Target: Aminomethyltransferase
Amino acid sequence: MTELTRSPLYERELAAGAKFAEFGGWSMPLEFSGVVAEHNAVRQGVGVFDVSHLGKARVSGRSADGETAKDFLNRCFTNDLDRIGPGKAQYTLLCNESGGVVDDLICYLADEQDVLLIPNAANAAEVIAILTAAAPEGITIVDQHHDFAVIAVQGPDSVAVLQAAGWPTELDYMSFTAVDDATVCRTGYTGEVGYELVVPSDRAGQVWDDLLAAGEPYGIRPAGLGARDTLRTEMGYSLHGQEITPGISPVQARLGWAVAWRKPEFFGHQALRAEKEQRPVRTSCALVAQGRGIPRPGMDVLAEDGTTIGTITSGTFSPTLKKGIGLALVERSHAGDAVMGVQVRNRVESFDVRKPPLVETGTA
Model:
């Protein structure tokens, strides 16, 4: 059995009473004081997450024919890096030839020859391998997965906490700035105002301690990946391996906004253009329980006549709505249905079809 990788913050989290679970080959905190309490802290005040399992890779250089690191990545990823300038971040996708999603990730553009990538933990090695195989001479891809930790401070009071801890906060959404050997990013996965700090692994413990001390007057709570999941599900944010996979395309997942259709090329562009033109046979939707049912991944989704039309990709109890919520992949012919059923154990529960986000937040 392969030993799980531990975050630089593992000992602190263990001492704080964290319950751990496996995420992408890492042992990461699932919860500290309880998922609901941590979720509500982020929605109402501030929470701090260790997300050091996320990948980190640096793409840099220029090829002999003048192609920069940014230009190279723009030939690979679906979104258009020409839309942003230095100091900006962009959500994008790496697709396979059939249009499925190998990974979704964030690109941080320092300059034309220097781009930081934050892929998902389980996919980081594959993303790096694909880019390395495709890169022309002069473009280098360096795996920095273990060199840096990532700490996310999220919630309405995150600005005050960052300021109290001495970090810059005057950043537009999807912008970042360098502070010595760290990076402060105005990004997050909760729907709330928040920041992600990419710090050297050997500094992570001190940064964590400083943030908790600065956040004490605001009731800051360490939050685990359980709350991160309920928060992102309320927003309708996709999770790789569930809403998007190598077999589920961005067209099906309603992520066409992250595809620059006018670009001449990106990995999987022919298959995606064809699917977009022909219209996908499946599409995603969000569901809110009418009763007490809580959907779980893999449960069947039913039309009003009882026929199976899809499956739940993510499902949980929403601490904000105090109802079961889910994301589903269903037959496109039923995309306009107002109500769908979900086979919850031995009964069918009714769910309203909603357009995400399912809650109002303070996001940009």
User: Anything to note?
Assistant: Residues 204-215 form the longest helix (12 residues). The longest strand covers residues 101-111.
